């Protein structure tokens, strides 16, 4: 039973652009303090879902609610913080003007910007025009504008693209503090392993449908847990018949570098060494979230 009200609740969402079906019956809930990563290949419907969630599009079928309210209404939109790469800045404004403007639009006093500028390390840049910022600095300004109103839901579109390792770590730390205070986060990303580190749940979208909605570790555990990569003269037929083999990829001719999925690499290696004493370049590794998403969406695109 649901005990707390969902911050974001989408039910039966369908959306098409002419003949193109972008969302084909999507249900999604994000609770207070939860971080949900939205993954999927290009064209999966991620942006459409996010745009409906923030009230910039109206559902053709289904409903979307933010804390029970309609996101197309201004009062509901005030509970949202949005950072989308496609949103441009008015070039004539300074960092301070942009963030204090966001505070005022959210019903706060302009001075509310001071604390968030400090938290994001932007105080020294407050008088600088946005045109004179680096890509990473612009990302931080977007985040400051999204956070200044203490939103109930943060919607972030590829927020760490272009950030270096330290900036990325700082970014997730800032979000962790907000989440501890109850802010929910919906983040679209192609950085699959990053979602594994920061998200409570990963939602895999493909061709407008949700293929999986689960904690990242559960997604990974649905797959064979190891891959063995090896250079071998054994052909595909021989490899596929070996005990415990679940899949083989990369066979391109004699002495190919092949990747074999298995639940039991130890047993597989014993047999491989027996059949091909010339075997070389052996590597065994865990399946990552990237493979889990690729397997679910059935294509290489999702891992890009
Ligand atoms: N304005 C539009 N007009 C027509 N078709 C559109 C429009 N916006 C999106 N689409 C189509 O709807 C589908 C879903 O697109 P959407 O942008 O939601 O996917 P996405 O998962 O965000 O993709 P990406 O990872 O490439 O940003 C795609 O087939 C896309 O071509």
From TrEMBL:
A Pfam family reported for this protein in Swiss-Prot or TrEMBL: ABC_tran
Membrane topology annotation: Peripheral membrane protein
Subcellular location: Cell membrane
Keyword Nucleotide-binding attached: yes
InterPro entries: AAA+_ATPase, ABC_transporter-like_ATP-bd, ABC_transporter-like_CS, ABC_transporter_ATP-binding, P-loop_NTPase
Main location: membrane
Keyword hit for Transport: yes
Domain ABC transporter span(s) in chain numbering: 8-232
PROSITE patterns named among the record's database cross-references: ABC_TRANSPORTER_1, ABC_TRANSPORTER_2
GO molecular function: ATP binding
Keyword list, A-Z: Antibiotic resistance, ATP-binding, Nucleotide-binding, Transport
The protein's name: ABC transporter ATP-binding protein
